[in-house]
Amino acid sequence: MIDSDVLERVLASAVRTGADFAEVYAEDKRSTSAALDDGKVEQVTSGRDRGAGIRVVKGDTTGFAHTADLSEAGLRAAAEAAAAAASQGDGITRTISLTRSDPRIVSPVRRHPDDVHTADKVAVLQRLDEAARSASGSIVQVTAGYGDSRKRILVANTDGVFVTDEQVRTLLRINAVANADTGMQTGYDSAGHTGGFELVDVIDVEGLARNAARIALTKLDARPAPSGALPVVIQRGSGGVLFHEACGHGLEADLVAKGGSVYRGKQGELVASPLVTLVDDGTMTGEWGAIGYDDEGHPSQYNVLIQDGVLTDYMWDFLRARKEGRPQSGNGRRQGYQYLPMVRMTNTYVLNGADDPDDIVRATDYGVYVAKLGGGSVNTASGDFVFGMTEAYLIENGQITEPLREGNLIGNGPQVLHDIDMLGNDFAMGNPGTCGKDGQGVPVGDGQPTLRVKSLTIGGTAA
Amino acid sequence: MSEQLQAIADQVIAQAAPGEHVEAFVSRGIETDIRVYQGEVEHFVSAQSEGIGIRVIRDGRTGFAYAGTLDPSAIAAVLADARENVQFGTPDEWAGLADPDGVDVVAQQLWNDDLAAYATEAKIQLAKDLERLTLGKDSRVRVDDSNYADAAVENAVASTSGVRRSGRENGCYVSVGTLADDGDETQTGFGFSVGRSPDEFELDKAAREAADRATRLLGATKPASQRITVVLDPYVTASFLGVISSTLNGEAVAKGRSLFRDRIGDTVANPIVTLVDDPTNPLAYTATDLDGEGLAARRNVLIDDGVLHGFVHNSYSARRAGTSSTGNAVRGGYAGTPGVGCLALQLRPGTRDQAAIVSGIDHGVLIQAVQGLHSGVNPVSGDFSVGASGLLITNGEVGAPIREFTIASTLQRMLLDIVEIGGDIDWLPMRAAGVSLVIRDITLSGA
Q1: Shortest Cα–Cα distance, B272 to chain A (Å)
Q2: Between β-strands A227-234 and A366-378, what pairing exists: parallel, antiparallel or unpaired?
Q3: CATH topology of domain B2-158+167-215
Q4: Which of residues 375-394 of A touch B (CB under 8 A)?
Q5: B88/A406 CB distance under 8 A
Q6: Distance, CA of A317 to CA of A341 (rounded, Å)
Q7: Which terminal Cβ of chain A has fewer Cβ within 10 Å, N or C?
Q8: For position B1, what pLDDT does the model report?
Q9: What are the Cα distances from residue B224, in Å, to A151, A286, A399, B227, B318?
């Protein structure tokens, strides 16, 4: 994308006013998306985004500017704007010498989206639509989406780091609407990976559509969810968002540093049930949050955050790690070249426990079984979080019985982690997600075995 | 500047082949984002962006492409991509671009030269002042970040159907995030102030709100589950109206995804409820003169004295419904095609302020924040369940703080269960104006 001698000169000009650190992050991204709605392929969209963001750090101040012009003149103009934003200082000459690191192939791409004809991508949407509609005459509307993105990134900084990474992602999503006398209900499912068009060979495309239809149809007979605190069993692969919200964000070092996390100062302490070992793993091949290098040029890592209930470490980006004089953890990520990086999760998951998942349900007299969670959000300072249940059932006398209507669950992160009293041996990763923080979205994965929280507040309307 | 963008859009549509309908949307923006922490600049972001989105329609098939640059070779590639994509669309008899409809534009004051000329040092100082003012409000309060941000955007649209419009807009805001501590407990708050120029900021009010929001929840407990009357703070009401608006979206209606389809003329809300979408009201933060397809923005009545009066449309949903666009095409920028959405919602206000409303309630909750609107509300089924925090109301007085509970009902029931609309309208920086709203018979789930 940019030659190393150009990068060296641009970085040198960025620190000429006395800055401690400068970085060039460049990306070249192509994307294809297609949407089917109401039986029609509404449109195919092609996107091109290419540009560079230049960050200059002096003391505790970061200056940042970006440009869509990747010529040396364009990069130098952005470097000077970023330097001016960071500091007003005297002329200093520093020589920058970059050492290029080898690419890391964490997620091999078998069918690169560039080599797949658009007609083949669109044809998948028709398959999804037909499969969902053929599930039942009560399916009255279907929306299906296909998206792929091919992002090449380059990171170079005044510490000599020089890496490139290619991130290819492919996603399918489907939403079905079912209608009956009881009203309308929706069902949603998605599948995605860090990889190419081979996604459609790896997953059961029609099965994905049928599942979305099944969820919508099931809810036609759903009764209002209970209101109040009950035991909640969360199906494997559907509840990783619980950990993402209940503690993941609170373990991000930027929030911890400012005292905006309930987990501040808790390293070495028991913060969860001893059943829980929580990992953030950017190296997990093919998963939605997998990366070769993070967006600050550091290799992705496998990081244990909670070991047997004890908080072992936070997640770090370059700035926070530098301030603490410790290694970063490969968690510096950003939405695109127009954004500053910050501490972000990659694939966050809970390792297997020992319980048989059927035993977990059998051991529950009365509670809620959540088969699919929607999104969630957390207040990291108080620990209060919510997440939506989009497919849930009542548990009565150790059996899964009636379907429940949608609602939010609410809990307090530190409390809920301690309240996990059964953990299954059936680990699975969940649906691809987008994590939002400070206005930036990045792809993340999550996963967990079937587990039980002994008490969560269910926001239904039934007494 | 806008003339330059208009020329780019004009050049693209001039290349339309016979039988081809082409629309070009061109945009360019400059943003400043300054964050202060403990009296020092933590980051200073100076961002410039530009891009183009091109829509091509041929034989009822639509293709689209965009690029984040206005480089001439990239524009040519985008046009080629959009044309290439046409072949993959399904023919749709309603596909098409917006036709000029002769509705006059209500001019809005969207640009302020003072902001464009405002000095960088003064912007930094505003963020520092806000941090200092906030810290001075209460010794339990810490500031997480204090921000100044401004943005200027200009855009132009041209189409082979005869739309040709351009404009520019700027604005700025300051915001502050707070933390308040009491022993092991920490609560958060925020405050902000917006304006077309920094002269319009009310820094002290923003600081006061940020401190109050964080401190008033200290010591909050989890309430018992019950059915109860809630008073939504204006900020919460604005979020609630945003949810309601997605059920009044003409595209959702046409595609059978609105719980209000086939309900025009029915009573869907308490008769005190009149809901309008009026981007021509200059008081509205999102007031605008044009919609995303370049048609005049206009006032539309959605619910009139409790009766469902109409839906909002862009040109596509209007053609499907056999009606005309209501000027409600919304566009997120050059990277997307126009969808349908409300632009500036407003409930017809009542007469009493929040204190007077609360004084008439024996037992209720003043809801000051909700969480999980994106995860617990389904605008198709109408299920509504969100996390909440607020203050108990007992015998007409606001009392103890409560948190970690949910409030739930259905959108259908909530509109009918509205019992009072406050007179305290607040023109928030959202697509809906805020006002205190009283809703009865809500299920509160707690301990």
Answers
A1: 25
A2: parallel
A3: PmbA/TldD fold (3.30.2290)
A4: 375-377, 379, 381-382, 384-388
A5: no
A6: 8
A7: C
A8: 54
A9: 50, 45, 28, 10, 47
A220, A252, A280 — which closes off a domain? A220
* Residues from chain B contacting residue A406 (CB–CB below 8 Å): 376, 378, 381, 383, 385
Task: Extract the tokens encoding A436.
Answer: 């939002």
Question: Do A249 and A195 share a domain, yes or no?
Answer: no
Q: How far is CA B152 from CA A104, B122, B125, B194, B202, in A?
A: 40, 17, 20, 14, 21
Window 263-322 of A, Cβ < 8 Å to B: none
Look at residue A349 and tell me if it is in a domain: yes
Q: Are residues A306 and A409 in the same domain?
A: yes
Domain range for residue A166? 113-220
State pLDDT tens for residues B307-364: 999 999 999 999 999 999 999 999 989 999 999 999 999 999 999 999 999 999 999 9
Residue that the structure tokens 């970690």 belong to: B404
- Inter-chain residue contact A60 with B179, CB threshold 8 Å: no
- Give the integer Cα–Cα distance in Å for B246 and A425: 41
In this structure, is residue A35 part of a structural domain?
no
Asked whether residue A279 falls in the same domain as residue A384, the answer is yes
How many other C-beta atoms are found inside a 10 Å radius of the C-beta of residue A357?
20
Residues on chain B touching A457 (C-beta within 8 angstroms): 222, 404-406, 445-447
**Which residues of B fall within a CB distance of 8 Å from A49?**
67-68
Q: What is the pTM for the complete model shown?
A: 0.93
What is the ipTM metric for this complex? 0.91
Cβ atoms A435, A441 nearer than 8 A: yes
| Cβ–Cβ gap A40/B92 under 8 Å | yes
Give the separation between CA B274 and CA A350, rounded to whole angstroms: 49
For the stretch A212-261, pLDDT in tens is 999 999 999 999 999 999 999 999 998 888 888 888 999 999 999 988 89
- Give the number of other CB atoms < 10 A from CB of residue B113: 9
Name the token pair of A17.
Answer: 């006013």
Residue with the two structure tokens 């560079």: A52
User: How many degrees, rounded to 5, is the angle at CA B341 between CA B431 and CA A438?
Assistant: 50
